[in-house]
């Protein structure tokens, strides 16, 4: 398969990337096509859809040997399930699937056609193999069962984001960062209330800690280019 595009986001590492698409609706990305695929005609009619499917590569999770079982982080990393019963990045083929909101179709950007999307769960630079429209009558299944995920509490954190750090980001970035922190990006086996975690975001190292159900941003340090 050929890479047709890549996505640009504010998340250069996997720490902080939402566990599923659509969880942080304010987190945005820009999809830029490879030169071979920069034909506006390929996007004709796409603007009539509100959501799209992205088929992409776990480009930083390649492994030489696959395992039939994995340990989902949401189960604390202590329980093994079949790889095909999870969305683990460590798969026989390192492919991901995300449903994202299509905010804008830009046919003539500086680098050719661009798609502006939100609700992403992809790192900066993630290669994309294909794009398909989300079709509600076929893709939506309200009666669907969620397996082990239905037993997990969807707990969100309060977020304290002091103005002295907040002012360094655009309003969209502020909303996205609050959304990420509210979903608790820490591994589920890390629950040290005294620990300060670091997460790269939009050119800054976001340092935060979690205590008593609140994620507090304690510092935002500019990263060197």
UniProtKB/TrEMBL annotation:
Q: InterPro entries, per this entry?
A: TrmO-like_N, TrmO_C, UPF0066_cons_site, YaeB-like, YaeB-like_sf, YaeB_N_sf
User: What keywords are assigned to this protein?
Assistant: S-adenosyl-L-methionine
Could you tell me which Pfam families the record lists for this protein? Answer: TrmO_C (PF18389), TrmO_N (PF01980)
TsaA-like domain location, by residue? 1-143
Which top-rank group of organisms is this from? Answer: Bacteria
PROSITE patterns for the chain: TSAA_1, TSAA_2
PANTHER family listed in its UniProt record: TRNA (ADENINE(37)-N6)-METHYLTRANSFERASE
Concerning its family, UniProt says: Belongs to the tRNA methyltransferase O family.
What name appears for this protein in its UniProt entry? Answer: tRNA (N6-threonylcarbamoyladenosine(37)-N6)-methyltransferase TrmO
Q: Which gene encodes it?
A: tsaA
């Amino acid at each position: 398969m050929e890479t047709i595009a890549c996505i640009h986001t504010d998340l250069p590492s996997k720490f902080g990337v939402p566990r599923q698409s659509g969880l942080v609706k304010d987190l945005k990305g820009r999809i830029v096509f490879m030169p071979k695929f920069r034909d506006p005609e390929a996007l004709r009619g796409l603007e009539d859809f509100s959501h799209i499917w992205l088929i992409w590569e776990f480009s930083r999770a390649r492994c030489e040997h696959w395992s039939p079982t994995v340990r989902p982080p949401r189960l604390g990393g202590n329980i093994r399930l079949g790889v095909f019963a999870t969305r683990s990045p460590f798969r026989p083929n390192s492919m991901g699937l995300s449903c994202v909101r299509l905010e804008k179709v830009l046919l003539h950007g500086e680098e050719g056609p661009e798609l502006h999307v939100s609700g992403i769960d992809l790192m900066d630079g993630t290669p994309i193999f294909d794009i398909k429209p989300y079709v509600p009558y076929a893709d939506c299944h309200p009666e669907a069962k969620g397996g082990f995920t239905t037993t997990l509490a969807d707990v969100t954190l309060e977020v304290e984001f002091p103005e002295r750090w907040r002012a360094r980001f655009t309003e969209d970035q502020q909303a996205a960062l609050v959304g990420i922190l509210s979903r608790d990006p820490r591994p589920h086996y890390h629950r040290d209330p005294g620990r300060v975690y670091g997460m790269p975001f939009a050119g800054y190292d976001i340092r935060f800690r979690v205590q008593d159900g609140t994620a507090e941003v304690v510092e935002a340090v500019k990263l060197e280019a």
